[in-house]
Amino acid sequence: MNSLTHEIYNELKAIYEHKIIRCDRASLFDQLNPNTQLLGIEKLINNTRFKYFPSHFSSLDNFKDKSLFDNSSKIINGEPVSIGAFPFMASLGYLRLDGYFHSCGATIVTDQHVMTAAHCVNKLGNSYNYTDYFLSKNQVLVVIVGTNSISGYNFLSLFQSNDIYLVRTISYNTAYTEVTSPADIAILKLDKKIVFNERISKIRLGESNDPSVIYGKKGIITGWGYTEKGKISEWLLFGRVTVLNNQNNPDCSSFENTQYCLEDLSGRESNACFGDSGGPLLRFENNVWVQYGIASFVYTNPNSTCANQLPSFYAMVPVLKSWALDQIQSN
């Protein structure tokens, strides 16, 4: 098989091998002929003007000009994965007396830090104090790890779980000043260390500081955002995208030097949408997942729905990595 088919095969194997339940028959991928022509995975859907990716639970304060920008996206036309397929994924949201409300995606970068988009937390500020916030808002910002489903969580079960963590401090990049700012990144420190296991581990960040190393290449995006059904997904979804920077795509031209411009070229139109903000752009390299981007903004349609036929834009981790590492070391 050619190199592209081999790359797709390895990525799909890494995802789907977690779906195989122990049984007497051989694994699906042990039976699969590597020369089989693999179909493209559906992408996440976006909106036809720029918008943030937060979920519908997010405050409207997260939106600028709603007719143009939106950062509250979710994966549209994505495909669900089993628990442990993306062990570094985290759901960032608000815990209230009436339950848990997903806001954004995040990734585990150390045993006490997660990385997300600045626009997911900038309204809370870098001086965020969870005690004061709870007393004033009757809710707290939390991170849930080690799960592929965010359905059915309630106040009691969350506190009985070891997979929920209070956000203790927020460090968002203050260079982020508007929807399309390139510095859409934040590091959150948790109140205690994450316990790693087969379901939970940290992500590896790309070693190169040059964002162009993945121009023209394939990637994976993941999230719990809005789907093609117009609702937040209860299940973690993924979609396949191509990095279109420097590919002469007119829909990328305004931002291709500052953000990753991503689109599903398979015809299935998977894309990011509301609730996917802060989630990763991933590549499977040397048998490990590597993060290159952070979901930032998308095009939206006039009716404020995600435009899955147009690109989505992700902050460039290679450019922002040194800032992120500084925040981790100082917090």
From TrEMBL:
Location of the Peptidase S1 domain: 75-329
Regions that span the bilayer: none
Coiled-coil ranges (or none): none
UniProt-listed Pfam families: Trypsin
CDD domains for this protein: Tryp_SPc
PROSITE patterns with a match to the protein in the record: TRYPSIN_DOM (PS50240), TRYPSIN_HIS (PS00134), TRYPSIN_SER (PS00135)
One GO BP annotation of this record: proteolysis
Keywords: Disulfide bond, Hydrolase, Protease, Serine protease
GO MF annotation, one: serine-type endopeptidase activity
Family indicated by similarity: Belongs to the peptidase S1 family. CLIP subfamily.
UniProt name for this protein: Peptidase S1 domain-containing protein
